[in-house]
Each structure stands twice: as C-alpha cells, then as structure tokens.
Amino acid sequence: MAEPGDLAAIVLSGGRASRLDHTSKGSVRVGGAALLGRILDVLDDIPTVVVGDDVVPAHVTRTREDPPYSGPAAAIAAGFECIASQNMTAEHVLILAVDLPFASHAVQQLMGMPAHADGVIAVDPDGRPQYLLSKVRRDSLQSALAQRSSWSDVSVRKLMSTLRLTPLKFDARTVFDIDTWDDLRLARTWIARGDENSHE
C-alpha cells in the first residue's frame, strides 16, 4: 500500500475545452469551488504538478506541454519531466484530469491501493477505462514515456496501452467528466440535490 510520501500527482488542466467555448476547465466552479481547487484539496500535501495555465498555490508546481494543446499524453510527459527534474522521490504517480468533479472518493482509494504490475486505473461500470484517473508506478511510467521522443498529438490511450493496469471499478458518477455545458449543468444539479456523495 502506498503511503503519501510514496506519491506524486500530475493534474491535467490545459486542454482546449472547445465544447466549453474554450473556458479554462480548472476555473469552472462546481459546488462553490473551482474544479482545480476541488482536486488540489484531495491531494493535500502530496507533491503535485499542474499541467496548464491556471494560477496555482505556492506549494504546487505548474508547467505546460510543448507545444500547448498537443494532447494529454504530451501533458503527462511534461508533468513527469517536472517530477524528475525536481527530484520528487515518489515511487507512484497519480494521473488525474481536472474535470472530474466527483472523483475525490476514487482518488483516495487509488492512493491506498497496492500498485500491482504497473499500476491501477479507474473503470466505469461497463469496464471502460478512465485513463486520467489512475495511479502508475514511477518506473513503469518512465519506461512508457521513453518509447517516444515526443508525445505531441499522440493519444493517451496509446501511452497507457503499454502499461499493465489493474482495473478498479467505480459507478458512473465517480468517473463523470465535464466536457460540455450540459455536463456542467448536470454536475451542478446533482450537487444542488445533495447527490454529490451518494455513491460513497
């Protein structure tokens, strides 16, 4: 079981959000808090790299994939480069998307799960993987990223396909992500009804 000191986190927050009229997802407010703030609260004192343009607290590192908007695999590579360059000693890396408003329970479970093989990944009730809600062994992620000199415009599925990840099933709401204005309205409706933690 991974202890907090064994962990670092990469939070992806720099996508185009084209279906949200290019609104910065990290700044979108759900339940009275910005999405980025919600996920940073869960990570607490875990060393964290945010890949995007958001303003971050002093204890959080911010970076950007090069070129910007070149996809989540490139963003993971940029985040991992920060972890390595700052000599973060974590043995496991949490890989998280900023647009998962109900993922706190899953993140906490991932923190405590043994990372069999190369890591653990959240899946929905139908077994579909949520690649950006996972915990990966640092050495395994390093090996996967080393297979290409650049991950620009390469799918995150391609990156993760080289890893042997143990599935951890969650309900649909836990892995729900906000891609559209309708998604955002639905998330706010759930919270207004007091349904935010019903899955827990």
Topology:
Layout: E1 7-12, E2 29-30, E3 33-34, H1 35-43, E4 48-51, E5 61-63, H2 72-85, E6 92-97, H3 104-112, E7 119-123, E8 129-137, H4 138-145, H5 156-160, E9 165-169, H6 181-192
Structural description of this entry:
With 200 residues, the chain is of the alpha/beta class. It has one domain: Alpha-Beta Complex (Spore Coat Polysaccharide Biosynthesis Protein SpsA, Chain A), CATH 3.90.550. Helices cover 28% and strands 21% of the residues. It contains six helices and nine strands; from the N terminus they run βββαββαβαββααβα. The strands form two sheets. Strands 5-4-1-6-8-7-9 form a seven-stranded mixed β-sheet, with helices on both faces. Strands 2-3 form a two-stranded antiparallel sheet. It is globular.
The unreliable regions are none
Corresponding CATH superfamily: Spore Coat Polysaccharide Biosynthesis Protein SpsA, Chain A
Anisotropy-based shape? globular
Name of the level-1 CATH class: Alpha Beta
Task: Give the integer mean of the pLDDT values.
Answer: 90
- What is the total tally of β strands? 9
Secondary structure: helix percent: 25-40%
So, CATH architecture? Answer: Alpha-Beta Complex
Strand order of the largest sheet: 5-4-1-6-8-7-9
